[in-house]
Amino acid sequence: MAIPETSSPRQATFDEAAKRRVRVLLPLPLAGPYDYLAAENLHLRPGDFVEAPLGKRSVIGVVWDDAEDRQTPELTRERLRDVESRLDTPPLATPIRRFVDWVASYTLTPPGAVLRMTMSVSAALEPPRPIFACRATPAAPDPGASGDRKLTAARRRVLRALEGGPPRLPAELAREAGVGGAVVRGMLDLGWLELVGTKRAPPPTPDGGRVGPTLSADQRRAADSLVDALASGFAVTLLDGVTGAGKTEVYFEAIAAAVRAGKQALILLPEIALSAQWLKRFAERFGAAPAEWHSELPTSARRNTWRAVAAGEARVLVGARSALFLPFPELGLIVVDEEHESAFKQEDGVVYHARDMAVVRARLTGIPIVLVSATPSLETTVNVDQGRYRALHLPDRHGVASLPQIEAIDLRRTPPPRRAWLAPPLRDALGAALEAGEQAMLFLNRRGYAPLTLCRACGHRLQCPSCTAWLVEHRLAGRLQCHHCGYASSLPRECPACGAEERFAACGPGVERVAEEATALFPAARIEIITSDTIGGPATASAFVERMEAREIDLLIGTQIVAKGHHFPALTLVGVVDADLGLAGGDLRAGERTYQLLHQVAGRAGRAERPGRALLQTHMPEHPVMQALVSGDRARFLATETAARRRGGWPPFGRLVAIVVSGADEAEVDRIARRLGKSRPHGGDLQVLGPAPAPLAILRGRHRRRLLLKAARDVQVQPIVRDWLAGVDPPSSVRLQVDIDPYSFV
Ligand code: ADP
Ligand code: ZN
Question: Hey, whose CA ends up nearest to atom 5 of ligand 1?
Fold first, then answer.
């Protein structure tokens, strides 16, 4: 792993002596930082962004700290190349560098791959391009003047908009004046406007001094406690309160206090679709929008945000999990909302759990972190029980709202009619709610029309050509789709197996099919389907929220995208079409996840004056998950789950590491998987399960085998796994993916 292409040995001139050796971490999957020489007059210090040669390229990296455990061999001074330049970007603060190292060693990822997440928008590191703004010239007429034929109403508005204000970017000016871009361009041509070089305005600062709503006594206690924690360094607090308790209002108080103290605050949300309502509430509370961070934003927006974060100008940032790697220099508070959400687990690239890594970042920075949930994860509740985290409770819904009543509908006793999915009690309840002018929601975590299409003549099932998965019919889009790889085709006329024509049958329901049934039952109701197919990004999400708030939707039919976070005051009835769905397959967390999801879904009902009701269609009303939901006895459910995990040595009482071997050539994949199996690590508190075909045995044309290492909690698994994998040397066509603390077992 030598640095390629070093220049020939040079004579040690006076200049050479004035150089020193520095380590530079490059955002590439290399074993560790590389050594370079840097002129003393560059005054490089750890954290500085520099340009350094790598082969024939020049790469931007970060000056890293010296460390004893170097992973790359030490090159002789003569073979080192020179750092080219130092960038003008604020240096990466020490806690972030420690964080990058920590995440890399925990997840068994090269540190450069983690650094790349921190430097995610490379354009942010290039010198900012000059930007130009418009201002009026002396040639421009007075906007109040009359008689000038060239002074159209649109041009008047543009001149008015500029009066007394600073120069504005052309697009901004057009938007403000309510005119098209061509109007502004025309005025530039006329010489009425001119362009002046300007700097990008810093993002608006949320006002921490604004007074929020009057809090209830419980809310006040919780808020005060969070605010107090800001002064005392690292601490993890679970903010545990029923849906609608005002948890958001409570942690807004902590954000306000952090802003007042001159600190930056980071809020992680599991899904962008959730953020529309959240952003609106934040802007109302703080008088300015927070900075936003997620992968749907255009590169230019992310570049500006990255710079604003690094420069300390962005004081509050809300984002998806990747926001955790942004270079905040003055981070003072982290909030992880809906901390139990599995969306915080990043499954490809660097595999990490953003909630767990957020706790690490808070610890390394010496700041408090708040985990927020109505249905905390078992990991977190065990940490509370064992005294590592503290908990604040909000037992009641805010104001007059009460928790929804949850009932099970036993599908064995009151089944739906043939080829229908809504049982009579649910139909009746829906009818009554719509009759009363209230909103209702049907929840089914399945996109499309039907999850399976088969040939009635021969029984052949339509399957994805490159995955072990059925094709899902999306009737509205007129396609069959693979939900794993994105493959799509139209419904064939003939069965590919027996040639029978038009004999296909749709099996099972998706949201589109439930919508079809609901439309037949309630033809007058305004019904809308909301899934990730219909919500493409933040704009469509907020448009949907507005339609729902304006009561333009009577019956909402949706997947988990509508299950969480939203607050719709007029929604009183929630029907869960298939409450058993998540329990099938049964991985380690199936029960816990089903409980959390259905509790969240039910929690959408009755969030204001009118009481809410949730009906769960199930074939097993006696199942502990259904019992816990109906009785509202969360403590008992958690105690049972905890006991079972403890007995089995499963997380959080034991450790798991998943290894997936994949490749296009099945024989090669098997060979490597068997070799891993043979060289498995041994030890009293270690156990290796597999290799076995993964449930998704073929994905995107790649064959997959899984191994699972199970260890006692106090075992440090990383060195064991590192040694184990170092012993097998897979060909480049076979990939080994390591997942520490896996959440997905497909
Ligand atoms: P949670 O985050 O616990 O689900 P929210 O913070 O969303 O709860 O609160 C539910 C609703 O009640 C929101 O519309 C919120 O603005 C309102 N609310 C909560 N607490 C208060 C309060 N103290 N004063 C006024 N409105 C409140
Ligand atoms: Zn596929």
Answer: 246
